[in-house]
Design brief:
The protein is mainly β. It contains two helices and eight strands; from the N terminus they run H-E-E-E-E-E-E-E-H-E. The strands form two sheets. Strands 2-1-6-7-8 form a five-stranded antiparallel sheet, with helices on one face. Strand 3 and strand 4 form a beta hairpin. The longest helix is centred in the N-terminal third of the chain and has 14 residues. The termini are far apart.
Length: about 170
């Protein structure tokens, strides 16, 4: 019997932590043929989804995939995301959560065994860990929601508490 990945358990744990603390859980996803998401909202092969109780219907997070219904532009859409394609899960209000390295997606593996590893684990000495997510735009050229600045200071720029309404950033805690 093959070993089950820890990733789906970590996703469920961070989701529960977000909801218990009143944060809005967001999911950053690498989009490929195995995902079912509204393609008009995909940017650079990735999409960020609000998976809070109020934004979803019938949310199911199992060991293989995350499935739910959500409204996009007033139209209910079915969403299917293989666990392998999840880049990160985090609280929108503070950016705290967990990022994952996606080395291959479900469609590349034929929905086989996950080959990803959480970035929060000890990085290999030969390769530095990535600093941020490409799914969270940080340049002024990327579009930002109305009233939200296009970029936010990095986690190490200052020691002030996060500003409400700003763009969240994921920080790696050692």
């Amino acid at each position: 019997m093959s070993e089950i990945s820890t990733k789906p358990y970590l996703l469920r744990a961070i989701y529960e932590w977000c909801t218990d603390n009143g944060f809005t859980p967001y999911l950053a996803v690498k989009v490929d043929a195995a995902t079912t998401v509204p393609m008009e909202f995909v940017k650079k092969g990735e999409i960020v989804l609000n998976i809070s109780f109020g934004a979803t219907s019938g949310l199911k997070m199992d060991n293989e995939a995350i499935q739910f219904h959500a409204r996009f532009g007033g139209v209910s859409r079915e969403i299917y995301v293989p666990v392998q394609n999840v880049l990160a899960i985090y609280g929108n209000e503070n950016g705290q959560g967990m990022a994952f390295e996606v080395t291959s997606t479900a469609s590349e593996n034929g929905a086989g065994q996950p080959t990803d590893s959480p970035l929060s684990s000890v990085p290999s000495p030969s390769k530095p860990a990535p600093v941020g997510l490409s799914s969270v735009p940080v340049t002024a050229s990327d579009s930002a929601p109305t009233g939200v600045p296009a970029s936010a200071p990095g986690p190490d720029d200052n020691n002030d508490p996060p500003k409400k309404g700003g763009r969240p950033t994921l920080t790696r805690i050692k």
